[in-house]
Design brief:
This protein is of the alpha+beta class. It has two domains: 229 residues, no CATH class; 184 residues. Strands 1, 2, 3, 4, 5, 6, 7, 8, 10 and 11 form a ten-stranded mixed sheet that branches. The protein has a four-stranded mixed sheet with strand order 9-15-14-12. It has a three-stranded mixed sheet with strand order 13-16-17. α7 packs parallel to α10. The radius of gyration is 22 Å and the shape is globular.
Length: 428
């Protein structure tokens, strides 16, 4: 049973708007704050913003799941919101992209000498960049999928925007001032995306890895605070995506739909694939989620709600470089860059046995589905998936011990260091 129905949509109070896209551009004349000439008004863009394309039934199912009240105190107050947007001169911001941007993202956000800036509808902090900039009459319609992130559709493609806000869960909820400063998480996420892009260009992409990357950041030059754009096109493949943090809320129904018991179903659909994902991230990119947060994962289901064995990973800013592996696979400069930027790294990987957080937050659901035997079965399945995939990728054997063998010792063994080099086509 849900805690309460979500309010359908939130329309935020705005600074005085102007009559359309062109009127806002004309406001920024050479005699005012900005020196660059305003770009011409794009009627197609104006129309697309005013009448956004909808979502496919599969993607809409994901968004309906995402906006299901799940974890007490961590669910959104509203299902969707109208997001105010403004234009900012490029001289005031830093624009950083990873890889070739989708044309839809370029069309919406990058305009000659201007960029489009989205304002989180819940934010009330005036020190968030461009708080007082006048907004367009047009707004983006977005679904709340995380404390600061919302999902939109533009020209038929799905993308997410992370925006600073001091009220992450709604205007009627508690203030969280720290959420108005996502600078470090944005920096970390873009650096992870860069490494993934670099490795995939060398090795080729792994078809079983679905990594939802931040591909563009627009940050205020004065504060470093800004917005991040996430590529969600991978979720538009016709499959369904079930948020892992909903396991304690809607998991029983999903297991029954598959004719399975709760414990066994999610041992196969969640715990073991999670271990496999951790192994792939570690061996391919020298990174890992530490700790594991179920909110960072989506369980892929086919059109009949049956698990495919794959997970989609998001919030890559929560992934950290593991130096024992990263330095051996040619990513030492990236490790050093992270350290110089004040970003967290780990000397070595977490022990295979330290996967307890795969059920983080489940106790906040109000349901008590995780009997000790269920949880232990999931932990064992995770560790089997992790060590088994490492064995497969590196063609080695992981020591079979009773929860005492530390991953650190394994990764430092000379033959494992050589296997990592072989995998990445590096000299021994």
């Amino acid at each position: 049973m849900l805690w309460r129905p979500l309010k359908s949509s939130f329309i935020p109070p705005q600074n005085p708007g102007v009559s359309g896209f062109c009127a806002l551009l004309l406001l920024f004349t050479p005699a005012s704050l900005f020196a660059d000439p305003a770009p011409k008004c794009d009627p197609d863009l104006l129309k697309a913003i005013s009448k956004p394309s909808g979502f496919s039934p599969a993607l809409q199912q994901w968004l309906d799941w995402e906006t299901t009240p799940a974890l007490r105190g961590l669910d959104p107050e509203f299902k969707s919101s109208q997001v105010p947007i403004t234009l900012v001169n490029r001289s005031l911001v830093d624009v950083r992209a990873v890889g070739a941007l989708p044309s839809e993202v370029e069309k919406l956000f990058l305009h000659d000498s201007k960029v489009l800036w989205a304002k989180h509808p819940y934010n009330r902090r005036k020190d968030v960049p461009f708080f007082n900039f006048p907004v367009l009459q047009e707004t983006l319609t977005g679904y709340h999928t995380a404390s600061r992130s919302m999902v939109f559709s533009f020209d038929g493609k799905a993308f997410g925007i992370k925006m600073p806000t001091d009220h992450p869960f709604g205007p009627g909820r508690a203030e969280q001032a720290n959420k108005a400063y996502p600078k470090d998480s944005m920096l970390s996420s873009m650096r992870r995306a860069k490494i993934i892009e670099q490795v995939d260009q060398k090795l080729g992409a792994d078809p079983d890895l679905i990594l939802l990357r931040d591909i563009l950041t627009i940050t205020d030059k004065k504060t470093g605070n800004g917005i991040a754009i996430r590529d969600l096109r991978a979720l538009q493949d016709g499959n369904l995506y079930f948020p892992a943090h909903l396991i304690p809320v809607a998991g029983e129904d999903l297991a029954k739909k598959n004719g399975a018991g709760f414990s066994e179903f999610f041992k196969t659909a969640w715990a073991r694939p999670l271990g496999v994902i951790q192994a792939k991230l570690l061996i391919r990119y020298g990174m890992e989620y530490n700790p594991i947060n179920p909110q960072n994962f989506l369980i892929q289901l086919d059109a009949n709600f049956k698990p495919t064995g794959k997970l989609a990973c998001r919030d890559l800013g929560d992934i950290f470089q593991v130096e024992t592996v990263s330095r051996r696979i040619g990513l030492g400069p990236e490790v050093d860059a992270d350290i110089s930027l004040g970003l967290k790294t780990f000397k070595t990987a977490a022990p295979a046995e330290k996967s307890e957080t795969l059920t983080w937050g489940f106790n906040l659901s109000g349901k008590n589905l995780l009997l000790p035997v269920t949880r232990q079965a999931w932990l064992d399945a995770h560790d089997e998936g992790l060590t088994g995939e490492i064995e497969r990728l590196l063609n080695v054997k992981y020591p079979k011990t009773q929860g005492t063998y530390i991953m650190e010792k394994f990764l430092e063994r000379p033959e494992i260091q050589e296997a990592l080099a072989r995998f990445h086509r590096l000299p021994k």
